[in-house]
Design a protein that fits this description.
With 156 residues, the protein is mainly alpha-helical.
Length: 156
């Protein structure tokens, strides 16, 4: 009998309006207390505001902003010989995108503003320019990984 339980990966359905998986991931991250309709309205209002401010396709702008935020590595703590080492690990595309979306929502919540859609709009546009708080978070993670890259050999 196998000891590990194999769990099937949850398949996310694409967004019905734009038919994009990235938008569904973003809606599910914005979601609070099961109110998906409210999360969809926040995101669609954000797209309207982005289109008003830039006169460009908001989905392409969102994809570029998230591409700017996505980290390449993460720091993992490993306990070896009574000491903790922070070892950098290379991320796959799905997890890195998920992490970027999480940072985007968290940093847009921390901003000052009227409502969530305007805060999210400003954070996306700042990340597109390369000056957002999510970009700083990614840079911090990359600097930590650069400092601890000597410990990669210890884990292997």
């Amino acid at each position: 009998m196998p000891r590990k339980i194999h769990i099937k990966k949850h398949i996310i359905k694409k967004d019905f309006k734009f038919n994009k998986l990235l938008i569904t991931m973003l809606i599910n991250t914005i979601l609070k207390k099961g109110k998906k309709n409210k999360a969809e309205n926040i995101l669609y209002d954000t797209f309207k505001l982005i289109e008003l401010k830039t006169n460009k396709n908001p989905i392409l702008i969102l994809e570029k902003a998230i591409k700017n935020i996505t980290p390449k590595v993460k720091i993992e703590s490993v306990y070896i010989n009574k000491t903790n080492f922070q070892i950098p690990k290379i991320l796959n595309l799905y997890y890195s995108t998920k992490l970027a979306i999480k940072w985007l929502i968290k940093n847009s919540n921390a901003r000052f503003g009227k409502n969530m859609s305007s805060k999210l709009t400003n954070e996306i546009l700042d990340c597109l320019k390369g000056i957002g708080n999510s970009i700083k978070k990614r840079d911090q993670m990359h600097k930590k990984a650069e400092l601890n890259k000597a410990f990669i050999k210890i884990n292997n």
